[in-house]
Amino acid sequence: MAENSTPRVVPLVDERPRRLAAPAAAFAEATRLKPAGHLQDRLQRPLHDLRISVTDRCNFRCSYCMPKEVFDKDYVYLPQSELLSFEEITRIASQFVAHGVEKIRLTGGEPLLRKNLEVLIAQLAALRTPQGKPLDLTLTTNGSLLARKAKALKAAGLQRVTVSLDGLDDIVFKRMNDVDFPVSDVLDGIQAAQAAGLGPIKVNMVVKKGTNDHEILPMARRFQGSGVVLRFIEFMDVGATNGWRMDDVLPSSAVIERIHSTMPLVALEAAQAGETAQRWGFAGADGLHDPQLGEIGVISSVTQAFCGECSRARLSTEGQLYLCLFASQGYDLRSLVRAGSDDGDLASAIAHIWRGRGDRYSALRAALPPDNGLAAKRVEMSYIGG
Ligand code: SAM
Ligand code: SF4
Ligand code: SF4
User: Fold this and answer.
1) How far is CA 44 from CA 154, 303, 329, 354, 357, in A?
2) Digit-coded pLDDT (tens) for 309-338
3) Cβ(108) to ligand 1 under 6 A?
4) What is the pTM assigned to this prediction?
5) Structural domains in the chain, sorted by start
């Protein structure tokens, strides 16, 4: 496509009602925008992070994400031809990097279920920022296949992993994952990842009040001083199927109080701008943070929205760009790629889409009427990537 001609963004037409197409009209008259290494949205938020969902499938059925009743044997997942290929993912990612993305997280579904994922990791690890720096390349996994794959992931160029683990008690954990998966195998995965050098490792625990909140202290004790950073995530109203109720949310402030009452904590500064977790360090006998004891984090998506700092874009399994975890429509980059558009088209479309972004769902959540109709239209986290 020639300079200054019109970028094309082709709307996706999907039979599934929840995946709405983005209107292309907004870009029809737009001038071509070249990447300059930085982009800001309507709320002056930079584009720094890209989360890429590599599969919509998972071997777990966590009730807060892919409840068994919905994701049953009749559920229709995307066919292979609908998924972005590794080459398509890398091509799109390279344009995000040209716009200033420095961190890429692979997710899903369960990303380690995607065949030959190491090939994609090697391709992404070869990308460089406009300043010539390698990316911060990481992955979020349920840990079930990590013991087997940690070494190969590291060898391919992955830097770090985040592992999800919702408790140490087998009965509780099995109730959360709903496929009878034991805690010990996830712990083995974490150990293998540490041994392979995929650190510093983060462990994410989604806290559901009355279901696993009694596991907060055992988890904090287990990972204190281990080099692993444990993070507690408030149960979110993401997607349309997890039966979310505010009553099931334990505010992060309560998590901190509980831990602090037996294991004193001190607040730490954010390590970098746009960080989702608030950091707390374990205190030593002198009341100051003892780095040997490590730290924890809380992600308070529900009770203390951090939309003002949100610099994350999400690329779905089939190549739609989402601007918010709670969005109900994406922008179809796959069609653009498959229609033969060049990198300039792609970069320009990404720039226009990001510059138009005003999403800040969590900041508005409390002000929205409870039956606002938005929830039923939201895409699922397993599709968009957590
Ligand atoms: N399957 C991988 C895993 O579980 O780590 C990656 C995908 S998963 C969607 C990414 C993260 O989202 C996980 O840490 C998971 O616990 C979190 N998550 C999923 N549903 C959630 C919800 N309703 N509220 C808060 N966190 C959620
Ligand atoms: Fe699977 Fe991760 Fe969702 Fe659990 S949270 S169902 S492991 S995608
Ligand atoms: Fe970002 Fe949307 Fe979450 Fe706000 S609600 S922090 S904009 S993903």
Assistant:
1) 35, 23, 22, 10, 10
2) 999 999 999 999 999 998 888 999 999 999
3) yes
4) 0.92
5) 10-384 (3.20.20.70)
